[in-house]
Amino acid sequence: MPPPIDQETSEKLMRERSIRSNRRHKFVDCLSGQDVNIAALRKLAWAGIPSDLRPMAWQLLLGYLPLPKPLRASTLARKRGEYQSLVELAFARDREGQDQQIWHQIEIDVPRTRPGVPLWMQESTQRSLERILYVWAIRHPASGYVQGINDLVTPFFQIFLSAYIDSDPEEFDTSRLPPHVLNAIEADSFWCLSRLLDGIQDNYIQAQPGIQRSVRRMAELVARIDAPLAAHLEAQNVEFMQFAFRWMNCLLMREISVKNTIRMWDTYLSEGPDAFSQFHLYVCSAFLVKWSEKLRNMDFQGIIMFLQSLPTQDWGDHEIEMLLSEAFVLNSIWHNAQSHFNGT
């Protein structure tokens, strides 16, 4: 038998339940209106979105779903049909007719996406991911397909899948879905990925100038908020590009779980279209400074090895929310002083 819960713990649990229930009511009220108030939705979403309301909330926050309720069904039907046409067009010719360079890179990356997670090891999910990535790449010739974009599809796909099933999306076998449902999930994931990438397009064009700029700004920011850490990294000849390039390119998705990423994106989406470049810079800086004490006691090799396999496996919402709060504080202090950053 579990030990009895003392009164203080019991009251705390009841208070938390009440807060959650209250927030949920606010979300339901906001989302069920005839015309969603996007400012109210952004404000609510910052602190996290209830999982069953997330598919709709994300689509509204990304501007994929129209705010007026009467327009939604027809918009979804049109966009899903449009995606199907794009797929048919892209794959109308045989393999020789496709862009071999793009297709080759996608074929390499898709099986490496989220290794060990059953959902992403299944053939039907991998075929969906290939189609999403290939269609996006040929529609965006300035960047084409760049490694890392495959990771960015996974939160959308899992969230939109969750709207149709009652179990954990990461354990689900997508071949069990009716074709029209899988097509809808795939189409919604494609359009939402496109919306996200529109805001960070210069991360993925030739030479990836957006990432270069963000990493440079991060190095300058860390020098201001944690001078001893910045000095130690410099003394050990550690360059920010050696670890932070991946943090910017994959939006920290290789460092934290998809569940953590999904919670983080609630806040990013509520912050607006620039958050995946602007606010993310402050999140990465707070993330690095979190390990400051450990890093300052390591040499070059120790630092690089530690930053490539960070101890975040057990992170839950609490750790992500702490990180977001710290980033928010940094953003508040430094955002208006951005003129001190080079290249902005």
TrEMBL record:
PANTHER family registered for this protein in UniProt: LD44506P, TBC1 DOMAIN FAMILY MEMBER GTPASE-ACTIVATING PROTEIN
Pfam family, one: RabGAP-TBC
Alphabetical list of PROSITE patterns matching this protein: TBC_RABGAP (PS50086)
Assigned GO CC terms: Golgi apparatus
Superkingdom of the organism of origin: Eukaryota
Domain Rab-GAP TBC, chain residue ranges per copy: 48-272
Molecular function GO terms recorded: GTPase activator activity
Protein name per the record: Rab-GAP TBC domain-containing protein
